[in-house]
Amino acid sequence: MPNKKKILIIEDEEAIADLEKDYLELSDFDVTIKADGESGLEEALGHDYDLIILDLMLPGLDGFEVCKRIREKKNIPILMVSARKDDIDKIRGLGIGADDYMTKPFSPSELVARVKAHLARYDRLVGSGQPNNDVIEIRGLKIDKTARRVFVDGVEKQFTTKEFDLLTFLAEHPNHVYSKDELFREIWNMDSIGDIATVTVHIKKIREKIEYDTSKPQYIETIWGVGYRFKV
Ligand code: CA
């Protein structure tokens, strides 16, 4: 029997949080509730959750800030909920890294369905630590890790070793922002000649191969002043 998936609900309206919890527990999830932004953020960063349901309007730190700060450290799915439709548009516009958005009131069974869908998608992407995860497929991009081959819309693209390693590393950690320093340390060993500018050059070359429009990258996104993130 596999371990139960752990869900964190950050929601200040007790009745809504309890309703969400009841339905998720009926579907065999392990659920924790935090009622404000600070304690929710602390809980999310300090423990291993599989998915977070995050309310937008919270006392203290609001949902925007909590989402942004979780996203700096974790790539687990974040489902944001809000009472206002225009907030949802704002969340999308800000690109803070939420995976999904729901407007209150929503049916608890729809919430459960979306939670399951996101967990399944995330498992497919990161493989849940299972070994048979040799092919990563995101939209038109396919990375065959065993054969070290990359296809864009079915057409094979030639990658150098480091370009392949860098793309694969980013794709295996979707939605996580990495600094150039972190990427350089991860992909090039400490003794190699080069510096973080090497990372910039490689990202540029990768984008030329996988993006339809390199000025509007749909896979590798530049987070100004921070680094890069692989979007899913
Ligand atoms: Ca609220």
The class by helix and strand makeup works out as alpha/beta
**Helical amount among residues, as a percent range?**
40-55%
SS strand fraction = 15-25%
Secondary-structure element series: EHEHEHEHEHEEEEHEHHEE
C-alpha Rg (nearest Å): 19 Å
Physical arrangement of strands within the biggest beta sheet? 2-1-3-4-5
Structure description:
By secondary structure, the protein is of the alpha/beta class. It has 8 helices and 12 strands. It has a 5-stranded parallel beta sheet, sandwiched between helices. Strand 8 and strand 9 form a beta hairpin. The two termini are 29 Å apart.
Record the SSE blueprint.
Blueprint lengths: L5 E5 L3 H13 L3 E5 L2 H10 L4 E5 L7 H11 L4 E5 L2 H10 L5 E4 L4 H19 L8 E4 L2 E4 L4 E4 L2 E3 L3 H12 L4 E2 L1 H8 L8 H15 L9 E4 L3 E4 L2
Parallel strand pairs: 1-2, 1-3, 3-4, 4-5
Antiparallel strand pairs: 6-7, 7-8, 8-9, 10-12, 11-12
Helix pairs in contact: 1-5, 2-3, 6-8, 7-8
Bound molecules: calcium ion.
